[in-house]
Each structure stands twice: as C-alpha cells, then as structure tokens.
Amino acid sequence: MKRKIRTARAYAMALALAATISMTSCQTQDYSTDLTLNNGQEYIQDNSRVKATRSNITATRTVFKKVQAIICDHVNISPGQIQLGSIIRNDLGFDSLDFIEIIMSVEEEFGISIPDEAIDSLITIEDLVVFINTNLSSHPAIFTKLLLILEEQINISKGQVDTYSNLNTDLGMDSLDFFELIIAVEEEYDIQIPDEDLKNIVTAENLVVYIAAQIEQQQPPVDPPVDPPVDPPIIDPVPPVDPPITDPDLPADPTDIENWLKETLSMKTGTPTFMLTRSTRLIDDLEMDEVDILDFKLAVESHFGILIFDDRAAMLLTIGDWITYIESRAPGRPLSTVLQ
C-alpha cells in the first residue's frame, strides 16, 4: 500500500509538471518539452532527448576525463582507447611500474589514498572511477548506496556518476526519473523528503548530504556518559630502557633508499655495489631464488616499516621497481626525481 501511494505521488507530480509545461507552451508558442524549476534547473520530458543525453554522459564527466589524461601521460595510448569497461592490466598494456606510477598520480591528483588491499580490487577503469568518486564524497557509504539505487532504478551505471554530477544535465534524468529516485531513497532510508526541498537537490552530492542530515535528525539524543570515579593512578618508577638493537648486517643510513637497497643486495648476493643499477634484475641478473627474494622483502619491511604483499613483491622485478614502490609507501623518505 505504501509503495502504491508513493508511486501515485510520483505520477501526480509528473502530471502536474507536464501540465505546467503545456500551459507555458500555449502562452509562449514554444513547443519545447523542457521544464525549469525554481533553482533554474532544467528537467527534460521528451524520452528521445533523455536517451540522447544519457548516451553523452561520459563526455561531460570530470573524474573519468582526468583518469584518461593521467593514463595517457604514462602510457602511449589515445584517450579513445580508454573506456569505463577497459580492463586495466589486460586491455591497456600496463606493466607493474606503469600501474604503480598511475596509482600514485591518481592519489596526488585527487588528494586521496588508495591502500594496497583496494588496489587489488581495481580491475576496470570503472572500478577506479567509482573508488575515486566514493572517496571524494562527504559520506562515502551513502554515496555507494545511491550508486546502487541509480543503477537499479534509473539504469545509470556506477561509473557514469561523479560526486557532483548534475542529475538532469549530466545524467539525463527527466522529472519522472527524478521522482522515482526520490521515492527509492525515501524507502531505502525510511525518510520523507518534502516537495519544497526537491528544488535544492540538483547534484548527486546534494542528495547524499540531504540524506545524511535526515538520518542524523532521526537518531535520538544520546546522554553523555558519566564516568565512574577513578582512583589516582599508581605511578611506578620508569624502568631503564635498553638501547635499540641494530642489525650489523644492514646498512646504517636509513635516508637513502637506493644506497640502502644496493648495499643490502650486495651483502646478500656478493655482487659489488658499483655493478648494481636501477635496471638490475633481482632474478635474472643477481640469480636470486624465491627464498632470497622473501628474505630481502622481510628486510625491506623491517627497515622501512611497511607491509608488502607477496603478489606485489612478485611484480617488483628490478632495483628501480623496489625504489619506486618504497618511495610511494614509506613516509618520511626523500623521493627521487625519476617520476617528476
């Protein structure tokens, strides 16, 4: 019953808007099927125009265009070869170093951090675009749910929606689409959105912020916790601290990543440091086996305080690959100028 009432509300609103269009057309002799709301936002009524607008969604999207530009800066391919459905590692011909450099550039461009466990889940360009937009939203969980609603109710794929996409001009939603979206949001979050508030919901992020505010209003006030009385702490004398134990087999200078790696590899393989360059391959040139690589990885993790997954380590083939990866993950280390 509730669904029928809300659906009737949507159609009633749509008919009222259509009537407004008809009256306006008769008065002005303008047979346009566009509708302008109080905030100056145009909503489209003609279905053929909606389809045309939606087919051009990608062309107006900022995040996707920036991702295309970043990839083209690192790999010699044209923007037209990069589509939302492109499989990053198969279709675009990336090697491990290209992929690491692109992830670092995305983090810098959008001011976000992409953890290692998230990188492994980025299979297509759409996955990357959705991850960026979700992290740009003020409420990522609500934005993620909104993407699902748009995909299921309005047939707009997740990768076509930027955080600040205009629901009408960017996503091609007509008035009926808009009210169906509002109804789906009301049902999902058990909230009511008054008609007078609809004129302020222009972008996807407008709707996300509105939902978050309604959810916050629904939560009952919480009394501040009353802490029980606490006895004053008994302070023991500070025990003496032993000096840190250093590994004499590892180089002492922690600030120079390249020299540290070369010295460590020299000690582990017996190869003179002057023969080691950034292009030196650990397996082919230094004849290191799986046990040697694992031992070297553990030494790097311990020295730089980072965690390197085994599948990621397998992608680091040369000394230069290791330097680039450590520079991107070890805070406080000086970055080389290779990627600048």
Low-confidence stretches: 1-5, 16-60, 242-254, 333-340
Query: What shape does the CA trace take?
Result: flat
User: What fold name goes in the CATH topology slot of the largest domain?
Assistant: Non-ribosomal Peptide Synthetase Peptidyl Carrier Protein, Chain A
The H-and-E topology, N to C, reads as HEEHHHHHHHHHHHHH
Strand percent estimate? under 5%
Please indicate the count of domains. 2
The major β-sheet equals: 2 strands, antiparallel
How much helix, percentage-wise, in residues? 40-55%
Number of strands: 2
CATH superfamily of the largest domain: ACP-like
Average pLDDT taken over every residue: 76
Report the CATH C-level class of the largest domain: Mainly Alpha
Function: Carrier of the growing fatty acid chain in fatty acid biosynthesis.
Keywords: Cytoplasm, Fatty acid biosynthesis, Fatty acid metabolism, Lipid biosynthesis, Lipid metabolism, Phosphopantetheine, Phosphoprotein, Signal
Main location: cytoplasm
Protein name: Acyl carrier protein
Care to describe what's here?
The protein folds into two domains: 168 residues, Non-ribosomal Peptide Synthetase Peptidyl Carrier Protein, Chain A (Orthogonal Bundle), CATH 1.10.1200.10; 73 residues, Non-ribosomal Peptide Synthetase Peptidyl Carrier Protein, Chain A, CATH 1.10.1200. The protein contains 14 helices and two strands. The chain has a two-stranded antiparallel ribbon. Helix 1 runs antiparallel to helix 9, helix 3 crosses helix 5 and helix 11 packs across helix 14. The N terminus and C terminus are likely disordered.
